[in-house]
C-alpha cells in the first residue's frame, strides 16, 4: 500500500449543530411557503412579511444598526464555518496491534474512552470486596470509583489499581492510562 499514512482519527458527529440548523431552515421554509400561499390567495404579501424589508429599506447603510447587524451576522457565519472546518477532540485511545502476515501495510485500531471506562468498571466488579464500581476515562487517566463494605481499604485500592491496569494492558491499550482509584466505604 503506497501513499501517505492515514491516521485513524474520527471526527465528532456534529449532530446538535446540524439538527439546530436544519430546524431553523425548516421553519424558514415553512414560513416562506405559507407567505407565498397567502400572497396567491390574497393578492398581496402579509403585512408582517413586508415589515422587515420596509424597516431595512428605511435604514441607511452607514447607520450604527446596519453595522451592528452586519457584524453579528459575520460573527455567526464565521463561527458556523469554524465549527465545520476545525476537527473535534479525539475521543479514542490507541490500541497496539501485532503485525499480521495476512495484512499488508499498516493497521491501526482504537478503543473509545467510554469503552475503556466500562472495561475498567467491569473489571472492578469481579474483585473481591467491591460492592459497586464506576469509572471515567480521559486520554491519560482512568478514574475508578469503588464502593465497598470493607473498613480497611488500603489493600483493596492496590488490588483494584493493579487489576484495572493489567486488564487495560491485556486489552492492547498502548500506552496504558494512569489509574486513579477512589474508594468509599459503605459501612
Automatic annotation (TrEMBL):
Domain DUF6286, chain residue ranges per copy: 75-184
InterPro entries: DUF6286
Top-rank taxon, per record: Bacteria
Keywords: Membrane, Transmembrane, Transmembrane helix
Membrane-spanning residues: 67-86
Protein name: DUF6286 domain-containing protein
Species of origin: Arthrobacter jiangjiafuii
Amino acid at each position: 500500500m503506497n501513499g501517505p499514512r492515514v491516521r485513524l482519527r474520527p471526527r465528532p458527529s456534529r449532530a446538535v449543530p446540524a439538527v439546530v440548523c436544519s430546524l431553523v431552515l425548516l421553519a424558514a421554509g415553512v414560513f416562506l411557503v405559507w407567505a407565498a400561499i397567502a400572497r396567491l390567495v390574497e393578492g398581496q404579501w402579509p403585512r408582517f412579511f413586508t415589515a422587515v424589508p420596509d424597516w431595512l429599506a428605511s435604514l441607511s447603510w452607514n447607520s450604527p444598526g446596519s453595522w451592528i447587524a452586519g457584524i453579528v451576522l459575520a460573527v455567526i457565519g464565521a463561527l458556523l464555518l469554524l465549527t465545520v472546518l476545525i476537527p473535534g477532540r479525539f475521543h479514542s485511545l490507541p490500541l497496539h496491534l501485532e503485525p499480521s502476515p495476512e495484512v499488508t501495510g499498516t493497521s491501526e485500531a482504537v478503543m473509545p474512552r467510554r469503552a475503556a471506562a466500562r472495561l475498567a468498571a467491569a473489571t472492578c466488579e469481579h474483585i473481591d470486596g467491591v460492592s459497586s464500581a464506576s469509572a471515567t476515562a480521559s486520554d491519560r487517566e482512568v478514574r475508578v470509583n469503588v464502593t465497598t463494605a470493607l473498613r480497611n481499604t488500603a489493600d483493596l485500592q492496590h488490588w483494584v489499581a493493579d487489576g484495572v491496569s493489567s486488564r487495560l494492558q491485556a486489552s492492547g491499550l498502548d500506552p496504558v492510562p494512569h489509574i486513579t482509584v477512589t474508594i468509599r466505604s459503605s459501612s
